[in-house]
Design a protein that fits this description.
10 helices, binds magnesium ion, binds adenosine-5'-diphosphate, 6-stranded mixed sheet
Amino acid sequence: MRDTVMDIENVDVWYGDKHAVLGVNMPVEEHGVTALIGASGCGKSTLLRSMNRMNDLIDGCRVEGGITFRGNDIYAEGTDVNEVRTRIGMIFQRPNPYPMSIRDNITYGPRIHGITKASELDEIVERTLRQAALWDEVKDRLKRSALGLSGGQQQRLCIARALAVNPDVILMDEPTSALDPEMVGEVLELMKELAHTGITMLVVTHEMGFAREVSNRVIFIDEGRIQEDEPPQELFSNPKHPRLKAFLSKML
Ligand code: ADP
Ligand code: MG
């Protein structure tokens, strides 16, 4: 049996009066790849953001229940939120490289963590860009602005940047849905490779092929609640909930 790296126990999330996530229980196994699926507005992003305290940045957002990372409550008083977001990295729908060079995007996090030696930083840059299948495309222009890259390259850079601080968990919120169609494949391919490295991944996605082929667990959310939580073979071949059946018939 795998260890539980994160545990979500009885979590509710509100935006003011709006109850967006209701009674979610979701232990997350180390090295697992979980796909979160469901219709727009069902609470996928809200749930994901509560897992590394990104919701802190939203006015009026309130999280109740327990979310632990390696047994520690990430909402406990005195928790270092930056450390939480380092251990539990996040990739957003729109690639958001920093307005600085490709190299500096990667070295930003490691520098904050006290790595200053150029050779060590160089090693991190090359390792993570290779991991993100981007090295060959950018190795001759590391000092140029990241904003000059294509959307697909930018998203792969954001993944490399997240990897540069050695996170334990990566949360991805529809990482391909804002990309031009011709760039979706390269990012999905990278996500698939990442999944094989053993990093724990939680991916909100509308890419049912990814959910079916790469994940080992698929969670269907409907109106803020988990309705099904199954291995992909089971969920796709034998959906039980009528809303899941309706959702899949639209997606597949
Ligand atoms: P999904 O990612 O599945 O599309 P979200 O988590 O974004 O869903 O949204 C869940 C519900 O919470 C929706 O009804 C949405 O309108 C509401 N919501 C999301 N963000 C906010 C916000 N910042 N303020 C108020 N309501 C929000
Ligand atoms: Mg969303």
